[in-house]
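User: Can you help me understand a structure? I only have the sequence.
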Amino acid sequence: MIKARWVERVLQPRFELGTSKGPINARTVWYLIAWHEHEPLVRGIGEAALFPGHSKEFPADVRLKLTQLCERTDDWAQRTVGDLVDVPSVRFAVEQCLRDLEAGGTKTLFPSDFTLGRMGIPINGLVWMGDKATMKQRIREQIDGGCTTVKMKIGAIGIDDELALLRAVREEYGADDITLRVDANGAFSAQEAPAVLERLAALQVHSIEQPVAPGLYEVMAEICATTPLPIALDEDLIGLNTLEAKVDLLDHVRPQHIVIKPSLVGGWNATHAWIRLAEERGIGWWITSALESSIGLNAIAQFTATLNVTTAQGLGTGSVYTNNIPSPLVAGHGFLRYRPEGEWDLSSLA
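Assistant: Let's start by predicting it. Here is the structure, written out as tokens:
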């Protein structure tokens, strides 16, 4: 018989994480921990990491579902295709927890050349919002650190200043040397977006994530049809938990790319569904973290490594916390790597 409990933790960023939706100064996540009654020292762990302001679920939903799961452990698999579909972060936690338990609590969820330390996953360097001088310094740090794809958050300090930062990169590096992505998190209105896109295209920006707020499907469809640079849907994927809803979005909006956050769309199976639908329609995709701790990031990274990706993924967020769980994951020189000689320190979850 499986026994289970859950733990809530607050993660502390090393610096204020600026977004167009406001700064992030703390991050709450939940861990689902399970073990077999006859083998209590072997424990599977999964992380539920909803994202306030983006997720359609709430902390109260997570706590309720985790409590129910711990009270009854014999129906978890059925619930992942039942009531947990609408609580995607918990659904993903269950997927992780069960797979880790099957793996003997080793955190080796998808054995591959990645987990053997033989290959890395290409990742973008992420530039959080701040004042102009700080953002300029962060861009330089990412490029000097070996990142050839840099993603910058925009929509908070003023588009003129943000474009000036991107222009400075382009004056030094061509598009063949440094790929520039931007993430607006829905910062622009339908009226503002076309002019912003034209100015970004002039700087050979690779793509913009979510230029207008999620849910504006007619607006986004028109933007995607006329845009001078590729559009990547991000927040618009969240909350579309049925196959029919996914198909409707992609067929109606026809984006050039989609950005998939497993914690927010419902885990590995849901991510596979989005990838299949995108590829059938010639839509590009990449996978990103949602500021999980090492537990969730490891689950996403090991899964991503099985997909043979060649473009930069958004998985370089593990170092943003002062109190993250020590793990074998290491980001640097434009890659996320897994050091099999490294160790997990799970003492904080004891």
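Now, to help you interpret it: The radius of gyration is 20 Å. The chain has two domains: 2-102, 121-349. Let me know which part you'd like to focus on.
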